[in-house]
Amino acid sequence: MITIPKGLPKVIDEAWEATKSIPGYLLENEARFLGFLAACTPGKGRIVEIGSFKGRSTVMLAKVSDHYSLGKVVAIDPHNFNLSEKVRGGGDSPARSESTKDDFLNSLRTAGVTDHVEFHHALSKEVSSSWNEPIRLLWIDGDHTYRGAKEDFDGFAPHVQPGGVIALHDALNVFSGPIRVFVEEMLRSNRFGVAGFVHSIAWAQFRPDDGEKFRERREQLARRASRLIPFVNDDLELRGLRKKLYKLHRSRIPRKMPKPADWAALFD
Predict the structure, then answer these.
(1) Could you report the per-residue pLDDT of 27-85, keeping only the tens digit for each?
(2) 2 domain residue, yes or no
């Protein structure tokens, strides 16, 4: 059963006020959607974030989670930010890197959410190897290579509870990992139900018992999204005709945030 918690628009507005000044790549509509997922995902368990950078998404999740007493947000990041911007928050240590740990912790303090975040200064694989708790929302925004995103997914997805949601950032940007994991592991699996995009966030609900009934909708989305994969497999910057073709295929993918009033109907 999907319910919209009381006062959610105001809660998300206030969370965004605390979030918007924090440097990061999460756009306002994406941040608001992430807060919406934190409040409205019906599965039981923890909220887990892989890839925190300077705390933009962490603060949004923690503000909403704290208001609705959803427990501490688990934030996992080695904070070895790659200056090439191809690897963010995970993967092997880059040749040129800088630590974002101090900025991250400062963001938590400034927003007043330090006590509402369980911080793991580590790679996701170092945490997932001993993880044994249920997860209701898994937010993947770490290493955007295929190897990295698949490793994040494989490490934590087995702990996502029925009704829970997995969301990946930058699935509609020029990275191989998020879009491939979304299409190959989620849209093509009958263990997932309703799915979609909000700007560059790809998301799907884990429905292992009745995901089959959403198969046609997932396949329609997969046909559109899979056309992007050949353009991003090498994780290289697109230029010229290839860039134009990529943008053309991307423009055909619906990615507006559902209205709260329509949210419950998506899951029926």
Answers:
(1) 999 999 999 999 999 888 999 999 999 999 999 999 999 999 999 999 999 998 764 44
(2) no
* Overall number of domains in the chain: 1
Helix (H, G, I), strand (E, B) or coil at 103: helix
Per-residue model confidence (pLDDT) at position 155: 98
Please report, in angstroms and rounded to a whole number, the separation of the first and last CA atoms in the chain: 9
CATH of the domain at 222: 3.40.50.150
What is the average per-residue pLDDT within 124-138?
A: 98
φ/ψ of 117, rounded to 5, equals -130, 130
Whether 143 is in a domain gets the answer: yes
* Beta strands across the sheet bearing 46-50: 117-120, 73-76, 46-50, 135-140, 160-168, 201-206, 192-198
Residue 266 lies in a domain: no
Structural domain including 173 reads 8-259
